[in-house]
Amino acid sequence: MGGAGWWTACALAALALASFSTLTPHRVWGATAAAGYAVAAWLSARRGGARGPVAHAVAVAGAVPLPLLVLLVTGRAQLEVDVIARSAGLLLSTGSPYLPHPAGPADFNPYLPGMAVFGLPDALSGGSSFADPRLWTGAAFLGALARSARGLPLLWIAACPVVALPLAVGGVDLPVVGLLCLGLASAGRGEAGRAGLALGLAAALKWTAWPALPVALALLVALNRRKDQEAPGTGPHAALRCGATAVATAAVLVLPAALRDPGAFATHVVAFPLGLTDTVSAAASPLPGHLLAAHLPGGRAVALALLAASALGMAASLCARPPASASAAALRLALGLLMAIAFMPASRFGYLVHPLVLAAWAAYGAPDRTREVSP
After folding, report:
1. 57-87 in b/e burial notation, b at 16+ Cβ within 10 A?
2. Separation between Cα atoms, residue 359 and residue 243, nearest integer Å
3. Can you tell me the distance from the alpha carbon of 179 to that of 183, in angstroms, rounded to the nearest whole number?
4. 266 vs 263: CA distance, rounded Å
5. CA 368 to chain CA mean position, Å
6. Cβ-contact 160, 364 below 8 angstroms
7. Residue 279's pLDDT band (boundaries 50, 70, 90)?
8. Which of 42, 178, 189, 300 is most deeply buried (CB count within 10 A of its CB)?
9. What is the largest CA-CA distance in the chain?
10. How far apart are CA 223 and CA 225, in angstroms?
11. What confidence score (pLDDT) does residue 368 get?
12. What is the pLDDT confidence band of residue 373, given thresholds at 50, 70 and 90?
């Protein structure tokens, strides 16, 4: 992983973003990351020179801490960073992280109440750069991945452009996918309670985490059926324990704020992402669901029908052939999320970090009980 060809491709991608993006944070990231990737490519190509870990470290430095520092000093970030910070302030002052009467796209908070936790340090410190929500979302992501499996190439994952960009400019999807990996890892080890806790925390952040729960439950059921693999935690009630823990955890974090202002909750978290408000979401990458909704008469209904059909197809696959390992569960979830991202009427390329990280985790770090249990 991480040879000269890979780092060259990363440099070109970063340079393209710096050249064509109209967003200042993206252009800053593209310029600094391109330089880091280019140096990493040069180091990797040298005969007898620095390779491997050194090139990785250089790539990470240019793609994450350097642009992040520049953006923190200049006060630049993606809109979602400001949304998280504002939601935390509202949560502390009103008990709800949602504005009661949003007017423009910047006023909407499409995240579940748990996401406001990452803005609390910023709200309590009065807007200090070193309490920026990006620092906490990134730390949660890397910490959850590190806990999920041994041997996971964290340095390579952090240097990958699709991860490095949100780490630097603002990535609300990162802690979600990190917790999903942690939850699936725990389920794969038969740790039903811990799996439910991790998945419940993720479910309190964004709707995109919810499909992981049925996948984890199907995994626990499959492990229970494999008597030669049975271990403490994978008994007949493991799936029930996991599901109950996840639902209880999410409810504790979501319901108080949702019930504080149910109307605002529904407007921000349900109507706005589905495109049912007068204000159009900025999440409008040219993916199939958005193209259908924007250019085909009745296209929004078609996109939602395709979204529902893909969800039913995934549910049927879990019933007919449940995943038998954490890696298989991660790949099944990655496929389901990829279809959901493709057919959502309001979606963006940044959401692809979910299936990409899950696929990388499945390939390199997911615990496989078939290797841990003696025959």
Report:
1. bbbbbbbbebbbebbbeeebbbebbebbbbb
2. 24
3. 6
4. 5
5. 22
6. no
7. confident
8. 178
9. 64
10. 5
11. 62
12. very low
